[in-house]
Queue: 2 jobs
Job 1
Amino acid sequence: MQSPKRAALLGASGYTGADLLRLGVRHPGLEFVVLTANTHAGKPMSAVFPHLAHAGLPDLVANEDVDFADIDVVFCGLPHGTSQALVSSIIAQNANIRIIDMGADFRFRNPADYATVYGAEHVAPDLQKVTAYGLTEHNRDAIRAASIIACPGCYPTAALLSLLPLVKSGAIRTEDLIIDAKSGVSGAGRGLKQNTLMAEAGESLTPYGVGTHRHAPEIEQEIGLAAGAKVAVNFTPHLIPMSRGELVTAHVKLGTAKNADDLRDALREAYAGEPFIHIADKGVIPSTGHVRGSNHVVINAFDDRIPGRAIIIGTLDNLVKGSAGQALQNFNVAFGFDEATAIEALPLFP
C-alpha cells in the first residue's frame, strides 16, 4: 500500500475546499498538511467550518507562508485569475509536485482562449503543455501523466458527461444545441453577494450570464474536440434556491440515433463499468435528489414531441462530482489509487 501523499489545499475556506476536506480526510492515501485561506490565516479550521472541528486538520495559513518543497500534491480552490502565477511559482519550487486545480485558470487548452473569455492574458501559458483537462471518464490517460489537472467547471461536467458520448458516436448532431442548466446557490461561491442572500435567492429562480456565461466556451471546446469541428452552443444557467445540486436539460437534434432508446443505448455502452455514471431506465426523470452529497451522476434521454429532436437530462452535485469529488477522483487516477477511494458514498436522502 502506498504511503499517504502530503497535500496542500489552497483556498480552504470556500465551499469546494470544505467538501474536499469532508471527503478527503477519509482517504487513506491523503494527509492534509497545509491549508491556506489568506483572509482567515492564523485561525483553526473550526473557526471557519465548525463541522470540520474534529477532523484533526492544521490551522489555516497564508499562501505566501507555505514551503512546497515537501508537498506531493496541491489542490487549488482559488477564484479564476489567482492560480496561474501561484502554480507557476510552486512548480518552480518543486518540479515533481502535482497540481489539481478546481478553478478556471487551466481549463482552456489554448491559453489565448482564456484571455478571450476572462478578459486578461494568461500569465503562465507554457504550463498548458503539461496540463490535462480533468473530465475523468473521458481523459484518464492524460490525467495519469499530467503535472497539472484542470478540473472542469460544474456546468461543463454535467453537460459534457451527458453529451460527449452522443457527439463522439454521431448519435446527435452538434448544430442548434441548446443547454438549459440550473445550480444551487453554493455554485456562486461563499463570498457575500446580494443576489445570493436568503431574502433575495430564496423562493426565486433566476437566470444569469444570459448569452455570455464563461462556461459556454469551455463546453464548446470539448464538444468541438469530440466532433472534430468548431461548435457553438446555446447555454443558459439559472440560480435555483437550494444549497447544492445541478441539473442540465439539453435539447438536441438526432444524428444516427432514431430515438431516445438509441441514445440511452449509446450512453450505456459508453459508460459501461463506470463507477459513478448511471443511465436511468426508460421514463425515469433524473433529479438532483438522486445524487445529493455524492459523486454520482444520473443521465437519461427522452423523445421530444418535435420530430428529429430529443431531450437529454443529467444531474450531479455541483460541489462533489462538479468540483471536490471530481478532484479526488482525478487524484486517485493520477496517483494509482482505486478510483472510488473516499468518494464511494451513496447520495443523501431525504
Job 2
Amino acid sequence: MAALKVGVAMSGGVDSTMAASLLMERGYEVHGFFMQLPLNHQEALETRARQVAAHLNIPLTLVDLRQQFLAEVIGYFTKTYQAGLTPNPCIHCNRMIKFGLLAQAMRAAGMEQIATGHYARLVEHRGKRWIARGQDPVKDQSYFLARLSGDQLQHLNFPLGGWSKEAIYERAGQLGFSFSGEESQDVCFLEEDLASFLAQHGLGQQSGPVQTLEGKTIGEHHGVWRYTIGQRRGLGLPDATPWYVVALDGPGNRVIVGKNDQLFSRTCTLHSLLVPHEPPKLPWSGQVQLRSRHKPALATLHSTGADQWQLCFENPQRAMTPGQFAVLYEEDRVIASGIIAEAHQEKTP
C-alpha cells in the first residue's frame, strides 16, 4: 500500500523541521514546500529550508506567493490600521495564504494532506474535524487558526499538537539538528518599527486631536495608526495618574484617551462571525479568547442584527480592541470566531 503523500510548509525553523521529521517516522511520504514571500531575509530563510530538506532527504518545492502576500496580507494590514483598527496579520495569512494558496499548490502537486508546525490539534466531534488547543498551553496556537473553514480542516495534519516545545528541541537535537532557540517573530514582514513600515506603505504623518472620552482636546497625535488600545507610553500627556489609549477613531482622525479603569468593558460587538461547521445555538455561553495571549474568559453570545453579534463577559475585560479577533471555545475546540467591531467602556472594572 502506497504511503500517504503529505506536503509540509517548511520555513527552516525547528517547528516545521520537526513536523516533517515526525511525519516521516510515521511512514508518510513527505514533500517540503517553501513560500517565497516579500521579506528582507527571504534568501536566508530559503537557504535554511533547503538545508533542512537535504538533511531529511525530502524534495523541496518553492511556491512564489510574493504578489499575493503583498495584496492579501500587507494590504489588509495597512488598510486596517488606516481605518483606526488593529489587525492580526497572522490569522489572516493562515486563512488566505498558508492554508489557502499554499495548500492549493500542495494539492495541485498531488499532496493528500497539508501539514505545518503549529502547536494545535485536530479532533473529531460528531463526525467532523475541529481545531483544538495544543497540549502545550504555553505554545498553543489554536487562536491563530480560528478563521479556517470546515473545508480547509479536512486535509490538515498538525504533528506537533501533542508535543511541548522543550520536547521538540530535545528530539531535534537527537536527530542532529542545531537550532538557536529563537522564536519566529509575530509579524514576519515587520522588520522595523511600525510607524516607519506604515509610512513606506502610504500612511504618512497626519496630525489630529487627542481627546478624552468626554470630548476635551488635551493633545495632538501624528497618525491614528501609531497607537494601540491600552497604550500608555509615548502619549506626552502628564497628569496625576497615567493616560491610556482607550479608543481610536479612524474616520474622525482622533485618538481617545482615558484612565486605566476606562479600559475595562463587559460587552463588545462582533461582525464577520465564522464557524467551521454549524453555528452555535444562541444564546451561547463559553470561553472566549480576545488575543493570542489573553486568558480565556466566560462570555455569552447573542445575535443583535444582520452580521452583528454581542459578547457579554461575566467579568470586565481590559483593552478589548476593534479589529482583533474573538475566538470562541467549547472545552478545547474552536467553534467560532468574529472580528471585534466596538467595545463598550465602563467607568469601573
